[in-house]
Amino acid sequence: ATFQPELLTHILDGGAERTRRRKEIEALVINDPDFQHEDLNFLSRSQRYEQAIRKSSLMVMKLREYGIADPEEIYWFKSFVHRGRPEPLDLHLGMFLPTLLTQATPEQQDRFFMPAWNLEIIGTYAQTEMGHGTHLRGLETTATYDPATQEFILNSPTVTSIKWWPGGLGKTSNHAIVLAQLYTQGQCKGLHAFIVPIRQLGTHQPLPGITVGDIGPKFGYDEMDNGYLKMDNFRIPRENMLMKYAQVEPDGTYVKPVSDKLTYGTMVFIRSLIVGDSARSLSRACTIAIRYSAVRHQSELKPGEPEPQILDYQTQQYKLFPLLATAYAFHFVGAYIKTTYHRISGDISEGDLSELPELHALTAGLKAFTSWTANAGIEECRMACGGHGYSRCSGIPDIYVTFTPSCTYEGENTVMMLQTARFLVKSYTQVSSGQQVTGMVSYLNDLSRQRIQPQHVAARTVTVRINDPVSLVEAYKARAARLVEAAAKNLQAELNHRKSKEDAWNRTSVDLVRASEAHCHYVIVKLFTAKLSEVSNAAVRAVLTELCLLYALYGISKNTGDFLQAGILNDAQITQVNQRVKELLAIIRRNAVALVDSFDFHDVHLGSVLGRYDGNVYENLFEWAKKSPLNKTEVHESFHKHLKPMQSKL
Amino acid sequence: GVNPDLASERQTASFSVEKLTAWLDGGAENTLMRRAVVEAIERDPVFSRENQYFQSQNERYEAAVRKAVHLQKKMREMGWTENGPEYKYIYRALAGDVAFLLHRIFTRSISMLGSDKQITKWIPLASQYQLIGSYSQTELGHGTYLQGLETTAVFDITTQEFILNTPKISAMKWWPGDMGRSATHTVVFAQLYIHGKCYGVHPFIVQIRSLQDHSLCPGITAGDIGPKMSFEHTDNGFLMLQNVRVPRENMLNKFCEVHPDGTYVRSGSQKINYFTMTTVRISILSDEVIVPVMKACTIAIRYSAVRRQSKLKPGEQESKILDYQTQQEKLLPQLAAAYAFHFINDYLQELFDRAYRQIQKKNFDMLPELHALSSGFKAVVTQCCTSAVEICLRACGGHGYSLLSGLPSLYTKILASCIYEGENTILLLQTARFLIKCFMAASAGQPLPPSVTYLASVKPGRCPAKNKLHFLNSDIYTEAYQHMAARLVSSTATKLQDLIQSGVKKHDAWNQCTVQLAQAAKAHCHYITVKNFVETVEKLKTQAGIQKIMKHLCDLFALHGIFSNPGVFLHDGYLSGAQMDMVTASYLDLLPVIRKDAVPLVDAFDFTDKSLNSALGSYDGQVYQRLYEWAQKSPTNKQMSTAYEKYLKPLLHNKLSKL
Q: Which of this chain's residues are annotated to bind FAD (chain A) (predicted)?
């Protein structure tokens, strides 16, 4: 390696001190005998749930014992305890408690917060229904106010209105924050949140009028009891509606909330977490695949010589190194959104909401872009490990099944891309009408200038320097501008032909998604490039620059059509880009293992026989297999039950 | 009753579903036979897959063994045989969820690689299940690269035996199905040594478990390799051999023999080994790859016609998600691909049959082409279909993630096909090697095999299309594909030659071009797929009703390929930017046209609800009701979890002092 991996680790953690603290917390968990257990791959779903709930209870106690209260430190502790997997108290800690803090009145906080903090109340957040997910307005659960008794009557009027998917609902929780359409004085007032007790304190039996259970086995999330909830005329007191903003008075009078933009804040925050999660999940998969590719020898490159490491094959490098570069890119994007969110939420609390729409649009798109890319990338890593990648011991199947639902939850990705597109089209329209736009979309301002000088685009061709990240940012910018413009024009053309706005939008939506993707891609290349100048160590900066170039050039080589069609690059330049990508593969090869070591995943956290730090893959693969449940007895019982009788009969 | 949202989709079909089904089956009589087999299997409760999603690995394995044993009885009852026309339908009806599939490979390898004497000895034992076989090729350290296998078989003249050994941990046999728990015998591939000289990899029949009590034989360590992404029903195993002796007669010796004095004799052509691999690569495509993608399309498209979300027109009912352009753009190209690959499978099957007839006459001329096409298509079809199933899964949103949707199981199973029977990248490079060779031959004026004659006429050109409707002309897009494939092959060949001429060693030059070579191989297969789809549609002249919708699907398949890889068509100016916009427009225009027939097009695949085993995809579209009912059957809802008493109760009753 040409650089010190620790230095890069510090950059990823946000400083040497953060790294030290992370490792300290990691050691606390990993050396704690209470958190040890059998390999989860050998446990049934019930057993995995049980292990998770056992560890979660201990975790809550120990966090308080150690006085760990910083959100990021809690996050580390939790992910070491659960090894990056979900756990049954996720919704209690991540949604129930925060929602009480932000949406409950002081009186409600007195009643619910401390019991919930002390885990006498375990809550979940029941929003999604069987029939509706991302499209919240379509939710069907009703909460009808009865002024006579001053109660809300909750109902699940149809099969499709059954709450479906909330984590911790199936078996763990005794309360839920339920989102329902509020009806008072005969009118629907839209979605509101209600605190609903669902199980008897003490016996944990469902309350009368409540039907609750587990939704059954899933692709992953074995340790999570995602649940269903059906309510039949279930009554709760008026005081159980979360009333910090909207209110229903005792006589049924509805009081409107001041602003509904504030709920954006939470969504932005959670989606920004998914961007970070995309980076981490992809980093884990890259670590496993790259280490294994350095250990696995196969076939021959030169006749007569020993079998080479598979990492020396160009095709293997071409599969893995662009993903490695992507993982780094997403780390920096995740860090950027987090910082921006914290900065803007400062502004929000002072009443300045001006930057929120852009941040909201940007995180929606980046959530979709990064989760789609990481999802495909994890699979590519698994595939790059050949047959052994398919074994659960590789750890990649688990990373994949845990990560893949993030393409759906917190906003289905296509819908997210279209939200970003709406913002882009709006910005484009502003520019067309002579206004200036600011922020990440300010490149759209150039479009009006180009119209005055039509030769501008053609002139751009020769200006792209393929070894200069800054110049590549410009190329991505031009591509985004072109695709946004094309989508906006197609939308306008559809509007000119048809009456309905919705119909025109639908008929342009494939173009709109492409425009959003191009915009997000530009933002990522820009942020990665910007990060380079912040790195003080020359050796680290050099290796990050190589990764940044690979990320940008690989993106071009995968989307040559856009760059060619827009005249941003010509045939000869595309050939150069393709060639340069392959040269970079060879350059990055020598640092590849050091670059994944810099992610600094502990073996316990990585959970992979193929990705072990010491590279002793085959011995440990054998040791692992011997523990498989099918090997518990030498002769399997099915021999006596089925095989032997058949052999004697035939 | 049928959900009205699905019923309405069927009323407006532009063609007869029954006719399309019969055509896909290769004739109405095949449809009848298939339905009869499926019914007989599904009526039998032993074969039920109802609880599959709730079972552990151990339970799945046991059920698979039970089914395999019961199947023997069923086949006798029904008068079915392993070589009969019903057999493929049996396998399909069981969805492959049955043990002893490797037993068949064991039998087949003895039939192909064994002498008449060996066949007479082993085949009757195997077919009567007096022994259960497996097939042990892959090792911990080596898969596709067979020469690298490390297991050894040393000939001992004094006892006339081979001594088999696993010299190191990476040489352990790893992955063979049926070997972990079931098999009593296996065919072991090992490096043959005689008098200290290595003669390469050869097959040996080795007994691994006692026929009496199923305990492991002396010198044998074997077991299950542990949980995988799927195939819970299969006991993929490991095998370690320590000085295991087998008689000289146990080496399969149709093509090579070791005489008692240690003389090694080779007879027959080695090329025939390629033929075996080719056979397997083609034979997996239909049941392991194309059927799953058809099932995934059926589930996702039916569900998309039932799921309503958000509104397209204010004031109206929420819209079916199938009416959204983005949803159509996800699913309909996958549907078109399912059809395209079904036809490619027919094409390969036909090619294979022709080659087989020639080989029987000792003519091996067709082998290189067959080998190149079967390798390339194995890679391209498995990769495209795997990604298609994943797209279907994600297009079903949250509910797709539930095992009850059936999609996760289809996905985890199909994705193994990208690795087994040859890792895809390596296979593509084999195809590329053939293409480069043919290109060079063409430059030297030599004749070419039929599938690659186009390589002889590589020339610059421009697409003649003037408006978007021209792109619905199959000649226009077939030529675009041909041009693109030829350009990629020729530019890679040129680069390879340039590198070699500049002094780079041949193998280094090859490695430096592998990314491009793989791309060229894919382009070739893509072109053949489009061309074959076009020819298949042309042959449908007598069935106008079906031909029309097949033509739309063919157009969609071809234009989707251009739309998704615009760069390779724009690169040398074959298509202009303006033409690319025409392609996009034509492609997007096709989506709503095919959308109208989307449900009938998946109905035509004719899967029973039991074979789909999906809460989202059943024929009647009662999605939500079924999801709710199935969830209630989950063991997590039946048994009182001990977690409450053990962990939750203390947690909930916990007082502040404890925190």
A: 128, 167
